[in-house]
Amino acid sequence: MNEATKTKLLEKNERLIDMVIERAKRDFPDDIAIIGLTGSFSTGDFHEKSDLDLIIINNTDRGWEIAYCFILEDVGYDLYCTPWNTRIQEQASLDSPAVASLVELQILYCAKPEYLEKFKRYRQQALDALAKPVGEECLRRARKWMDSAKQEYAGTMLAEDIGSVRQAAAGVLYNLVNALVSMNNTYIKRGVKRYLEELVMYPFVPDAFESLYMAVIDANTVDEMRIASLNVLKSVAQLYSSMCDRFIAKPVPTFDNLKGTYEELWCNCRNKIINSVDTNDKSYAFFAALGAQGFLDEMTAERGTAKFDVMQYFDAGNLRVLKEKFLEMIDEYAAEYGKVGREVEKFETFEQLYAEFI
């Protein structure tokens, strides 16, 4: 881009900015708090058809009336509002992909000094979060994006036409980008155009990530899209799992945190599995096993108990194996109580229970 074209673009932007600020001052003095510049014109990474990215922070619903979409000289513009308690808060807590719009915003207009102070508090909240080392907090944020990527992958398998499969594959990649951003406790600084350039510079990215990333984009058939989506998803999932092992302290069973868990397992799972197997009710047994697996997994994650695999023993043609193995697991879980010095709350008579409970 030559200097004359660049100067013309910047002059046009100045006129647009002045126009928006003029309208805010005239019609929305109490409704619009702050107007700022973000995006390519903020970073300098713009081209001849780049639009102007303005962040308009509104105090009230009436402030939305300033929103306007238009085309000027073959360039599209969308003026929209960013409320404090939704988008700004999400950016401050790093739960939004648009963190750069908060931490790097160039303030162009502020209606009152207290609004600027409020903005600075939100910005500082984000900066404080970004200054923390990689750990449980950023991995928690990444989990949300990982779950969304898995849902999109399901979409690649359920869709049939190539456009829908490609859209779902793009969704996989988009969510994994944001997962990696969270896993590295950072934010995208230069927008969608520079995703890959930024990602490959992070300390925590899967091996050969660039080729996995581009395989999704280069895929031409439904099968290629599904395979490429699965490969990149698995690579990030494996990295996520290894980072959780490294950075999140595992819980340890204690006298207090195991209280009632064995009895709950007995109450909600034991007799259901016994009854379903004894009556040869395959559907009942299947979902009873699922419930038991879910409870035991929760105990492993939250209380630090041993890992149990119930579902591997479900065989619709031989339910007895499920019952036998699950009863063995019940005994093993009781041993967890013994290790921390806790006794099972079990009574032979009502009178014994009454005496203890009352």
TrEMBL record:
Top-level taxon in the UniProt lineage: Bacteria
GO terms for MF: nucleotidyltransferase activity
One Pfam family it belongs to: NTP_transf_2
InterPro entries: NT_sf, Polymerase_NTP_transf_dom
Assigned keywords, A-Z: Transferase
SUPFAM superfamilies the record matches: Nucleotidyltransferase
Domain Polymerase nucleotidyl transferase residues, every copy: 18-61
Record keyword Cytoplasm present: no
Name used for this protein in its record: Nucleotidyltransferase domain-containing protein
Organism: Paenibacillus lycopersici
Lineage: Bacteria, Bacillati, Bacillota, Bacilli, Bacillales
